[in-house]
Amino acid sequence: MSGGKGYGIGGWIKHSFIDFPGTVSTVLFFNGCNLRCPYCHNPELVRGSQTSVNFDEIIAYLRRRPGIIEGVVLSGGEPTLHGSALLDIVRELRTLGLTVKLDTNGLLPEMITAIAPDYCALDLKTSPSRYPELGCNIQPEQLPLLRSLDIIRAMGNRAEVRITVARPFIDNAVIEEFTVLLSGMENVFLQPLRTTKPLLDPDFDTRNSISAETIQQYRSQLATVVKSCIIRGD
Fold it and tell me: Rg for the chain (alpha carbons), in Å?
C-alpha cells in the first residue's frame, strides 16, 4: 500500500475498550455514507467533510503496540463504500495479526463477505420498504440488506444487529416485521435515541424519542425470536 494517504479515513480513536467486544481496539471512521439517517451522530463523516487521517501514521502506531492493541474497528460513515481501498487496509491490518470488526448498514453485503470480519455489527434502520425515507435509492424488493442479515445470522455470536429506536422509523408495525427478519439472530441491541451530540438533522430531537416502557415492550417481542435482545444503556 502506498504511503501518506488517508484512504477515506476521516477519524481515529487510538484506544477503545467498548467498541469491539472482548477486544482492545483502535477505531477508524470512514468518510461518506449511502444513507441519511437524521439521528446520525457523525454528520461530518456522512457529508464526507472530515480531513483525511494518514493511514501510514495509523499503521506505525499499531506496529509499536503489539499485544496491546488487539483489533481494529472499521466504522463511519459507511466503510464498505471504500471498496478495494478498504480491502487493502484490511489485508495490511491482518498482516499485523489484528482482528477486524466491521460496523455497517448492510447495503453492500458483498463487501461484508469480502472483508470476512471477525465481528460484524449491522445497523438495521427500519422496515426495508421504508429505506427510501433515509435516502436509499434501491427498490425495496431489491434491497441487499436482506442478504446481509443472512450473513449476520450465520455468524452467530460473532455478530450483532443494532436498532436505534426513534420515531418515525420504528413503530409497532416495524417491530412486528423485525420479528420475521431477525428470527434466529444471536444478538440484537435496541438503542434509545440520543440527542446530546450534533445530529445530521438538527430538527431531530427528543420529540422523536420513544418511551422506555415502549422500548421494553419491543425488547420483549423480539426476545421471543432471537437468542439475546438487550436495551443498550440499561
Answer: 17
Q: Can you read off the three cell numbers belonging to residue 9? A: 479515513
| Homologous superfamily assigned to 9-231 | Aldolase class I (3.20.20.70)
| Burial (Cβ within 10 Å: 0-12, 13-18, ≥19) of residue 89 | buried
The 10s digit of each residue's pLDDT in 202-234 is 999 889 999 999 999 999 999 999 999 999 975
Place of cell 483525511: 52
How far CA 184 is from CA of 48, 126, 149, 161, in Å, comes to 36, 18, 11, 12
Are the C-beta atoms of 98 and 65 separated by less than 8 Å? no
Sorted by where each begins, the domain ranges of the chain are 9-231
Determine contact, residues 85/31, Cβ cutoff 8 Å. Answer: no
Here the cell at position 33 is 455514507
Q: Can you tell me the distance from the alpha carbon of 21 to that of 42, in angstroms, rounded to the nearest whole number? A: 22
Cα dihedral across residues 190, 185, 76, 19: positive or negative: positive
Mean pLDDT of the chain: 93
Q: Between β-strands 71-76 and 228-231, what pairing exists: parallel, antiparallel or unpaired?
A: unpaired
d(CA 211, CA 218): 11
Q: Please give the grid coordinates belonging to residue 170.
A: 420504528
Span 75-103, pLDDT tens digits: 999 999 999 999 999 999 999 999 999 99
